[in-house]
Automatic annotation (TrEMBL):
This is 50S ribosomal protein L22. GO terms for molecular function: rRNA binding; structural constituent of ribosome. It comes from bioreactor metagenome. The keyword Cell membrane does not apply. HAMAP family: Ribosomal_uL22_B. The lineage of its organism: unclassified sequences, metagenomes, ecological metagenomes.
């Protein structure tokens, strides 16, 4: 019961802050936290959570998904390199970081 979002255009450091808030919580609690959160990564993270729940229902035939425990982590993705023109013909690099977000659902023990 896993869902993966690859190459999300936000730095992993910022995305990991959201991930830490829902780690270890139940699906019901994680939905409540993500719906109230005012951060840019909260909406894609909530969509990814719903995708993981749908995977659990469809692939693993689990009916009560609210009791599942959320396990999540964020990895560093590709870095897009851009250039900013500067004075006297120079150019400075701009690094646009991406993240890989993984949400796994596990049953309570």
């Amino acid at each position: 019961m896993k869902a993966i979002l690859s190459n999300y255009r936000q730095a992993p450091r910022k995305t990991a802050l959201i991930s830490e808030l829902i780690r270890g919580k139940s699906v019901k609690e994680a939905r409540a936290i993500l719906s109230k959160l005012i951060k840019r990564g909260a909406l894609p993270m909530s969509k990814l959570l719903e995708s993981a729940v749908a995977n659990a229902k469809n692939n693993d035939k689990i009916s009560n998904t609210d009791d599942l425990i959320v396990s999540t982590y964020v990895n560093k993705g590709k870095v897009l390199k851009r250039w900013r023109p500067r004075a006297m013909g120079r150019a400075f690099p701009i690094h646009k970081h991406t993240s890989h977000i993984v949400i796994e659902l596990k049953e309570k023990k």
